[in-house]
Amino acid sequence: MLLSLSWELRNTAPEKSASYGLEAIDLATRYNDYENLAKAYSFVGVANRIMGRYSETIDYFFKGLETAREHNIPEQAGFAYLNLANLYIYQEHSSMAMDNIKKAESIALEIRNKTMLAYAYLYYGRASKLDEKNDSALFYYEKSLSIRRDLNQVNEQATCYKYIGDIYFAKGDFEKSSDYYKMSLEKLDVEQDQDLYANILIREAMISFAQKKYREANDLASRSLEIATDIGANMAIRDALRVLASISIALNDYKAAADYQEKV
Question: Rounded to two decimals, what is the model's pTM?
């Protein structure tokens, strides 16, 4: 129950998610429940990653990996490698991310875990995008999406659509990018994934800004900031503030721009 609560709340109340995960760690340790212990370490790490607490995040991810490897729990080892890869992507260390994704992919194929494989392809895409290999990124995103359709993982499909939208944004195809963001929102359970919702709003704001629709961009970025602040998603807060600062500069409101930049 504690683990279920921790996972369900990660994108809407990461502080509470971490708290439930820590309780799960204590309970799993007490009863030598190593599989759930490895899982609890991962969940607490994910909650901290969403809050932007990277030093705590990597500590919990490594504890999860060590527990899984020591007690021969390949599934949890695979997800631990993916967690580390995800963190390295956020820190823009693409080569370190790739190393961990390859390990996770190998485990996923060995134990025939399609969910893990879908994550691996998604992360290959994100790491490729960091290296500005947009065509490779799109290839992997579509592979991940295909698996998630087969598994009927609807909210996970929303994530794939969002990242595909990012590729078309990078290519300057704002119309196609916006179409994919809309597809993402159609699949997304907004109440259960406020973090992704905030990120989609930021991207939509960036499209409006690029098209010089400053009022619309401001409304979208402000809404994103409000949601990210409510759930304590520090990276989304940072991105929203940067967009709002850019809008203020475009409108010659340099005081507002300075205020936003100061909060980043």
Answer: 0.90
